[in-house]
Structure formats: structure tokens, C-alpha cells
Design a protein that fits this description.
Order of helices and strands: HHHHEEHEHHEHEHHEHEHEHHHHHHHHHH
Largest sheet: 5 strands, parallel
GO molecular function: ATP binding; DNA replication origin binding; lipid binding
CATH superfamily of the largest domain: P-loop containing nucleotide triphosphate hydrolases
Subunit structure: Oligomerizes as a right-handed, spiral filament on DNA at oriC.
Strand content: 5-15%
CATH class of the largest domain: Alpha Beta
Number of domains: 4
CATH topology of the largest domain: Rossmann fold
Shape: globular
Organism: Novosphingobium nitrogenifigens DSM 19370
Domain Chromosomal replication initiator DnaA C-terminal: 414-483
Structural class: alpha/beta
Family: Belongs to the DnaA family.
Length: 506
């Protein structure tokens, strides 16, 4: 069992500190491994993983969730050399490895030395199995002479589609035809289509702003494909801001800055994703600023995307912010429930052989509401499970197999929110939720609110009762059962509850 495979299962803490008497899950795993004879490398791997879980949790408390999630959580523990006392820590890219080494190397070394006295130094690098990134060259560009001669490998079979897209970094599946448009993204889609048309765009650069998983990367790729179709032979390139920074640093180290600048400014359309990562390095920002100026002055096109507005970018100098915001900043709003339904229905066209009931689509659209990527991923997982096991897709199967996604997406609705919504809907005063009045015009809304509190919150019957004027839990149970029964035989009551559910869950 390799350590990185073990770590991929999650980097959470072990539940209890080492001082507790009851074994934590990780410690139990180590005891089990020892009993089964899994000594040596397996035992060392488990010990390292357990120590890293403790260290990672401590760093999360010190640094905060955001920094930890972005820089510490992706770390994978590599091998430990007992002779030299060197421990390898791996990150997925050179940029992230350099960033962590610059800012957290001392803290990581100290933490490991405290956890394991035999660790004398920590070495931070890139995982050896990471996928190598192609450089910024296009077909026909002359590559620099190799530094050392090496035997040429035998030619491999070539996929024509790969050749057509590899030169510009575009994903062939991310096109305008595959992008579902709704009220929250219509401005961004229209602006993207204008940028991809032959006519000179009225605005440049185009800045796409959206939170994670809402489709900004999809639109970047779609622009590239549409422009390539409209103008065959156009030089198009897509890259992330991190990729730009890595290429820039490598060019500086290899004394190839002139070639780097010439290649970068020769593109007819440059698409840069996750621009929020252009941080820290003033020289990198300066070069990106000059690249923007060179492209725009030559009448070429630039599209960038980020998870926040230009003015909200941290660590970016004012001149660059001014250039980024001088064109059009197009927001992509989180997908509303109508758009989520459309996305699921569009995605279902790929799975014609699998029947997905309408109630499952409605359930997914209502529950998975954080971002589109999770929504599509949840549907894919559900259909894949059904196909592999031969089970029909059902609401029960969705609840069983998508537990993690569903729990992460469920908004924490409070009883106070429920009471406010019910009082507004039935036009009763908020104080009536806790009053002792028994008039029907007050009792029924109060019962509906109790029912919704039980359905939408994790609160127990006694807890709900306390929020309704200190009522007994039996009163809450009676209200929940009564509303459940009324919904089955009273269409008006069922309609009221459905309306309130939509208001509270959207």
C-alpha cells in the first residue's frame, strides 16, 4: 500500500488527540495492520499518514480553512529516508510546490520534527507522477535545440482530434452547443459569442466572473472552438494563470524570455483562466500587463476568467487591475433551479439507455445547488452506479449513493427563517408562533411551521417545541402528523407546503 494512495482517502484528523485512551480510527488501522503482519513499508506508510493527519489539522487551525484548503490539503506525503532523515512532501504543480516551500517550509519542518524526532529535514517538490505540461509553442514553432541528445522514441499512433486541439489547450467537449443558457448566465454567453465572432468585438478584454463550478472555464473553451471555426488558421491558446506563471519562470531560468514573449504575443486569441492566481510576483504581473497591451494594440483578442471581480483580486497591482476591467466584466450568477433542471435534462440526452424519473431530476435540481459541476457529477455518479449494478434509478438510490454531495449542498435553514416565511405567507403576526391562541387562523400556520421545521432542519421534537413558545414535544409530533395527513387529501394544503418549500430551499 503506497502512502499517496492512503492519503487520497482524505486528510482529515484522526478524531482524538494522542493523549486519549480510546484508539482513534487511524490508530486502529495501524494496530490491525500490525496484527495482520503488515510491518515494514506498510506500517511506516500508515504511521506517516497518521502523523500528517495530526499536523494538517493543526495547520488548519493556525492558517484558517481557506489557506489550508488551497495550499496544505493538496500535499501528499512521500517517502522517508531514515539514513538522511529526509521526508518528501509532494504537490501537484511546480507553482504550488514553490509557493508552499517559500511560505510554509519552516512551519512544516518544525511540525514534522515535533511529531517525529527522526525527521531532520523536509523536502517539498512536485509529485513525480504528475502530468507534464506542454509548452506555449504552436505547430510550426521552432523548438530550442535540446540540451542533451537522446534516442528518439518510436512514433505512437496519433488521434486526429488530439492533434487538432492539443496545440491550443482546448477541451473538445466544451463548446457553445454543450453550454446550457439561463437567466443567470445569458449576458456572459452573449458576450462570449460576440468575442468568438469574426466581427471586431466592441469590448476587449472580456472578463468572465463566476464562483467555482458555474461555467466560466466552459465558456473560455467554447470561445476558442467557435473562433477557430470562424477563422481557420487562427492562433489560439488557452492556459491557466498558474501555467502562465510557471512558463514565465522557466523562460527566465533558461534565458528564453525573448522567445517566450514572441510566442505569447503571436496568438490571435489568448484565453487565461483563474486569473486570481496572478499573485505575488511583480515581474510576472509586469509581463502579463505588457502582454495585454501588446495584444490589444495589435487588435487581437483576450479573454480572462476569475472567481471574483477585478477590484477584489488580492496582491495584484493597480495598473493590471485597470487593464483587466477596461473591457467588459460579465458575471455568471449561480444557476437557479430552472437552469439546474435544464442542465440535468440536457445531460440526460447522453444516457438514453438509462431512465431517470422526473422526481429524481427534481430532487437533484433542488438539493445540489452549490455549483453546476457538482450537479452534473452527482447525476453521472448516480447513472454510473445504476448501470454497473443493474439497479433502476430511483429517489431512494439517489439519497443512498449521493450522501456526501447532498449533505454538502443542503443549506442550513433555521427555524426562525421558517417562522418568518410562514407568517408572511399566511399573513399572521410573528408573535403568534409562540402565543397560546387557539384560533384556526393561527393554529394551522403554526402547525405548518412545525412541520417544515421537522422536514428542513435536524432539530428534535423537543427543540422545535421550545422555539414555538415552549410547547411539549407531543404537540409538535401531532402537528407534523396532521400536516402530513392533510397533504395527502387536501390539494390546497399540499400546494401551500410546496410553495413554502420552494421559497425556503431556493
Amino acid at each position: 500500500m503506497k502512502i499517496d494512495e492512503y492519503m487520497q482517502g482524505g486528510s482529515g484528523g484522526r478524531g482524538q488527540s494522542r493523549g486519549t485512551s480510546e484508539p482513534t480510527p487511524s490508530r486502529k488501522g495501524r494496530e490491525s495492520a500490525a496484527r495482520d503482519g503488515g510491518a515494514g513499508e506498510d506500517q511506516d506508510a500508515l504511521d506517516l499518514a497518521a502523523d500528517w493527519a495530526d499536523i494538517s489539522q493543526g495547520l488548519k487551525k493556525d492558517l484558517g480553512s481557506q489557506l489550508h484548503s488551497q495550499w496544505i490539503k493538496p500535499i501528499q506525503v512521500g517517502s522517508f529516508c531514515k539514513e538522511t532523515g529526509t521526508l518528501d512532501l509532494f504537490l501537484p504543480t511546480e507553482f504550488s510546490a514553490n509557493w508552499v516551500a517559500d511560505r510554509f517550509s519552516d512551519r512544516l519542518s518544525l511540525a514534522w520534527k515535533i511529531a517525529r524526532s527522526e525527521v531532520r529535514q523536509v523536502r517539498i517538490g512536485v509529485h513525480p507522477r504528475r502530468r507534464a505540461m506542454p509548452d506555449l509553442r504552436m505547430p510550426g514553432d521552432s523548438a530550442p535545440a535540446p540540451r542533451a541528445a537522446a534516442p528518439a522514441p518510436a512514433p505512437l499512433p496519433v488521434d486526429p482530434l488530439t492533434v487538432a486541439t492539443a496545440h491550443n489547450g482546448l477541451d473538445p467537449s466544451l463548446t457553445f452547443a454543450e453550454f446550457v443558457t439561463g437567466s443567470g448566465n445569458v449576458l456572459a454567453v452573449n458576450a462570449a459569442q460576440r468575442m468568438a465572432a469574426l466581427e471586431t468585438p466592441q469590448f476587449s478584454p472580456l472578463y468572465l466572473k463566476a464562483s467555482t463550478g458555474q461555467g466560466k472555464t466552459h465558456l473560455l473553451h467554447a470561445i476558442g472552438h467557435a473562433y477557430a471555426a470562424a477563422k481557420p488558421g487562427a492562433r489560439i491558446f488557452y492556459c491557466s494563470a498558474e501555467r502562465f506563471m510557471i512558463e514565465f519562470v522557466q523562460a527566465m531560468r533558461q534565458h528564453e524570455m525573448i522567445e517566450f514573449k514572441a510566442r505569447l504575443r503571436s496568438f490571435d486569441l489568448l484565453l487565461v483562466d483563474d486569473i486570481q492566481f496572478i499573485i505575488g510576483k511583480a515581474s510576472t504581473q509586469e509581463e502579463f500587463l505588457h502582454t495585454i497591451d501588446a495584444l490589444l494594440s495589435a487588435g487581437k483578442r483576450l479573454v480572462v476568467a476569475a472567481d471574483r471581480a477585478p477590484q477584489a483580486l488580492d496582491g495584484v497591482e493597480q495598473r493590471l487591475l485597470s487593464r483587466l476591467s477596461m473591457g467588459l466584466v460579465a458575471d455568471i450568477q449561480p444557476a437557479d433551479i430552472e437552469l439546474r433542471r435544464k442542465i440535468l435534462q440536457h445531460r440526460l440526452s447522453r444516457f438514453a439507455a438509462t431512465a431517470v424519473p422526473d422526481d429524481v431530476i427534481e430532487f437533484l435540481a433542488r438539493t445540489i445547488n452549490r455549483n453546476v459541476r457538482e450537479l452534473v457529477g452527482g447525476l453521472n455518479k448516480l447513472i454510473a452506479y445504476a448501470q454497473l449494478t443493474g439497479q433502476p434509478v430511483s429517489l431512494q438510490l439517489a439519497e443512498e449513493q449521493l450522501t456526501d454531495i447532498l449533505n454538502a449542498n443542503r443549506r442550513r435553514i433555521t427555524i426562525d427563517e421558517i417562522q418568518r416565511a410562514v407568517c408572511q405567507f399566511y399573513r399572521v403576526d410573528r408573535t403568534e408562533m409562540a402565543s397560546k391562541r387557539r384560533a384556526r387562523a393561527v393554529v394551522r400556520p403554526r402547525q405548518v411551521a412545525m412541520y417544515l421545521a421537522k422536514v428542513l432542519t435536524p432539530r428534535s421534537y423537543p427543540e422545535i417545541g421550545r422555539k414555538f413558545g415552549g410547547r411539549d414535544h407531543s404537540t409538535v409530533i401531532h402537528a407534523v402528523r396532521l400536516i402530513e395527513e392533510l397533504r395527502t387529501r387536501d390539494a390546497d394544503m399540499d400546494g401551500d407546503v410546496r410553495t413554502l418549500l420552494r421559497q425556503l430551499e431556493d
